[in-house]
Structures are given as structure tokens and as C-alpha cells.
Fold this protein.
Amino acid sequence: MINIIEFINKKSLTLASINAIKESDIIISYNYDFEKVKDLVNQQSEVFFIENIEEDLNINACELALSKSFEGKNVSLISNEYLKFGFNSLIYQIASKYSEKVDIKIYPTVSAINYTSSIVGSPLDDVAIINFANPLIPFSELELKIKNALKSNYILAIHNPLYNEELFNRFKEISLEILAEDTLIASVNIEDNSKEIIKLVDLDTTLKSSFLIVGNKFTYQEDNLMITPRSYMIKNDIISYTREFFEKYLNNESPCGLDYDCDYLPCHKELEACDYCYCPFYPCGESSTGGKWIKDKNVWDCQECIWIHTESADKCIREKFDKIFTEVEDLNLKKEELLRIRRECLFKTK
Amino acid sequence: MINIIEFINKKSLTLASINAIKESDIIISYNYDFEKVKDLVNQQSEVFFIENIEEDLNINACELALSKSFEGKNVSLISNEYLKFGFNSLIYQIASKYSEKVDIKIYPTVSAINYTSSIVGSPLDDVAIINFANPLIPFSELELKIKNALKSNYILAIHNPLYNEELFNRFKEISLEILAEDTLIASVNIEDNSKEIIKLVDLDTTLKSSFLIVGNKFTYQEDNLMITPRSYMIKNDIISYTREFFEKYLNNESPCGLDYDCDYLPCHKELEACDYCYCPFYPCGESSTGGKWIKDKNVWDCQECIWIHTESADKCIREKFDKIFTEVEDLNLKKEELLRIRRECLFKTK
């Protein structure tokens, strides 16, 4: 029987993995990984270091695991999830050389993406994960993967970003073509749990990084954390000013474009349109546009959010909002649809 | 202090998570999840079921966690990774309402993607993961994510595929526009660890599925397992027939297109081109094109692989192969480049 123990570090092993290691007759591992689990290993177990195996290391490590398993041994192969290759696929490919059946069991671990995210804050939403350390994948495929993920608002996570400098530079180039320069990127070194949160434009090869997480259009930084809000709905009373404004809106009596007659102009810097003087999404409770809570008051403050007042956002929202908005109460009753419109327009225009 | 315990099932908890649960004064959890961890919970701990919290369940669960934490309690919030929402982002968003600092620690778990993959075989390579159960994300964004992932050879994984039937149907439609009908899909029900491996064309809403994994161009099925090979390099002696053939190839004496004069024609069904009568990638050791090992003989059998003999593959390979192939020994010396060419052309033409 062969146990494939997925591994990033000792802390991330499950009880099932720990037991499998303890009960193994034979451990096959890179020395590098073995050092981290050796106190879990039974003294009677025989240990083979992959570095000592003749060339074609990974293939021969699988061959060794299979031959020991055919002898009736219980073998554990430590399969590092974030390095160049794990063994998961390879063991099945090599096993299919033989007619004798072997019982292969994969012990999943905390994946690098969950592990690094927990260090970084809460950066995840829908996510695309690429490994740069597979030299058998052509650049053309990896570049397409990068491009398509970034164009569709995925969080993009990259194992071993610095494995190949040329590829790393292409990645930065492509990213700058698609994303804003100040897009947030978290760089984590899984070895020592260190992290840095930087801007895309500052990305360079001096990073000590084993894993990168590129934020999406909604990702923001708070203190030393990177957070991607997954949206939630806050319903609240509609205050009288808002009610008044949206009654006028429904009667086509509210401003269109910049309202030069307004006493409060300029209320924000760089304001382009007053169509949504009161925000139809208020309170969004989501900081990617600059809004924030006034601490301890349960009041959402939009002073720093200019997005709703930009022409592109205004245009996008009008098109969709006017189709569903028929009475002021809709601001609460149709909050779910409204938040979808907000997200769609943010994605298109931010 | 608030511990966010990422959770899919008890088996997948790490030691760190188990200890955090044990040491909590307060546990906040859906009853559904609590049932699975209750024997880990200290008898003195106070337990709050989220179902019993007044509306805006998740928001109020976070508010409760925060208020208890402000009282000095050690709180654990069980955050189901694969259901509608985990708490990871929300807790940070709600915490930012208050000036008092709270220590939030996220305990990562085996992610649903690693867990389900371990049940299915070894389906992973670069992967895009989408959650269908967030009603606040517009379909337009999800459709773009599906389309772009499938166009760039990602494995596509979907949490809660059947959360919304309309979205599920759109997903199938889009997939059929981009992928072959017989693309492999694994459907896993995390609750009972059951799995099915089906073809894209057979996907329907009767599936009992909490997680789907859509294979890429290279994914194949063996027995009841779904495997995506991540490529590996097998170097071997160049046999005399191969040597002879490629010497002719270098002298432009080998066939171009179908060789009607060949005594062995038709050697394969549906053969379109004989340019690579001997395969420059032999042995690829990778079953996605129909090749397989002859059991116990260490011989790779290409009888069932027609891909190299199709016109589109032939054309793609010629273009790239002729640029790097200068002597017969290159079949081994440039194996890495050759396998990249193989992958690139497979992706383009399969």
C-alpha cells in the first residue's frame, strides 16, 4: 500500500496524515521535507532519501515505492504540494506500468493557497492557481492562463513565482497590461511564514517569495492585511434625505451629470457626475472603493469613495438600475440585485 | 480573540484547529457543522448555533463573535469552506466597525479542492476554482470566469454547482461550446464522499454533487480514477528503426502526408499523415492520447494513439519541431523542449 502524504509543513498535516506516517514501514522523502516530519516517524521505519536515488529522481522514487509496496510494505511518499512536483499524478502514471494492483491512498493537506491566505488576511474569492515550476509546460499556455485569469476578475495565485525569471517578467508585463498599477499583491515565503503586501508596479525579482496572491478588482488592504470582500447585505432604514432624493429620481427631477447649481459643489474631489448624489447601494460595507466604517458608530462613511460619481460608473449603473428601480423601497427590497449591479459595474469601470 | 476554523469535515482538521476548538470558551457554528465536531468541544464551552441567531445570520454571528471577544473570551467560529459563505472575509469587514482591536486568527483546513481531488484520483494541474453559491456575484462575471478558464486549459473546479439551476445550465452550455463532449468531469458529494466520473455531455441536474472538477485537455480516466498527467520525462535508448527513420527525416527523405506506397498502410484507423511514422516524443508515458504501458514489460504502446497522425497535429509539430531538431540524439537531448512542443500542439489541436 502506498500513502501519498501531501505536505507543505508539519503544522498543516491532518491527524490522518500523521497516523499514516507513523504506521509506515517505509518513508520515501526529500531530505528537505523529511527534516520537518522526522519526529513523527517510527524508529523502525526504513527511510529513503530521494536525493540519494539515481537520476530521474521522481520517477525512480515512485518505482521504489511501488516495488516496496509489491513486497507487502506500507509505504509513505512525502509529496510536497508547493515545490516543483508533487507525486500525486506521477504515482498513478508509473503504477500503470504493472499488472499487479497497488492500493494508493492520497492524504490531502492544507493547500498552499489556504495556508498562505490565512497568513495574508482573507484574500480569496474565486481563484486561479498556477505553478510556474513545471518546465514541461510551454510559456504560451502559462501566458494564456495568466491573461485569462486576470481579465475575468479571478484572484490569481502563483506557486514558485521566481522559478524562471523570464516567465516572472512576462507575468509582470501581462499583469500591467490588464490590471491597475496599484493592484495589491501578497508575497509569502512558506518556509518562514513571512509576508509582504506590495503593489503590482513594485513587483520585482528581489522578492523572497514562494507563493504570490494577486488581488482582484475588489481587494483592499487594511493594516497589514489583504482582504477581498465576498459581499454581504446590510439592510437599513431609508433616511429621509435619501427617500426625498430617490422620489425626485423616479420623477426625473434629479440631476443628470454634474449639478453646477448645487450649493454643496464640489462635495468630493474629482466629482464627474451627481446622478447618484445619494448612493443606491448605501451602505455597501465594502472598502474596495474607499468607503469605511466610522468606528463604534455603526455608520458607513462614503466620503472617500468617488467611484459612484465617475462618468463611467454612472453610465453603467443607470443602464441597469433604471430597469429594476420602480419605488424607493426597492433600495432595501432589491438589495441583492442592487449589489450585483454594483459588482458588475465596479468590475467594468474600476 | 477569534479563531476562524476553516472546516469541511472532521477528518480534514489539523492539530492546530483541533487544539483551538478545545481551548475555546465559546463556539459559534451552524448546527449542521457542530454535529461533526462536537466531541472535540470542551464541556465548559458555551455554544451558539447560528440558526438561532436573528436574521442576517452571518453578519450577526460575526457581531456575536466580536462582542464575546471584546469581553475577553476565546471564541471559535466554525467557517465552512465549501458552503454558501465562509466567515474569513466577513469577520474582517465587520471587525472594522470597531475601534477596539481584536486578534483574529485563521486556521486553514484541507481545502475542498484538495479533499475532493484525493477522492477522485489525481485530477489537478493549474486550476481555477469558482463558487456558484454567492448570489451577490452577477452571472456575467461567473460566465466570463467559466469561459476564460476553459479556454486556457485550466482544470475548472466548482463549489456548489447546483446552487442555481439556471447558472448550472449556462455552465454546461458554455462548456460544450469550448470543450469536447467527452471531456471528463468528476462530481463529488463531500457529505458522503461519493463520486462519479462522467462525460461533459452527460452532465445534468440530477447529480448529487457539492463539488465538480472539470478535466483539461490532458485528463484521462483509468479504472475509476480521473488523472491529469503533469508530464514527466522518460529518456531511453533510441532504437535502430527510430534512428533510421529520423536520419531520413533530416535528409527530407521521409514521407510527407499519407504514404500510399507504404506496405503497412493502413497501420492505424483514421490515419491522416505519416510524417511522424515514428513518434518524436516516444515514449511520452502519458495516456491522454490513448497510449498505454504494456503491463510488466516497460514498453510504451502507441497503437491506440492516433493524435500524432492527424493533419492538425502534424502541421503544428512540424512548425516547431523542425526548428530545434538537428540530429537524431536530440530526441533525448532535447526531450524537455520536445515535451513542451507536444503539450502546446496537444492543447491547440486535441
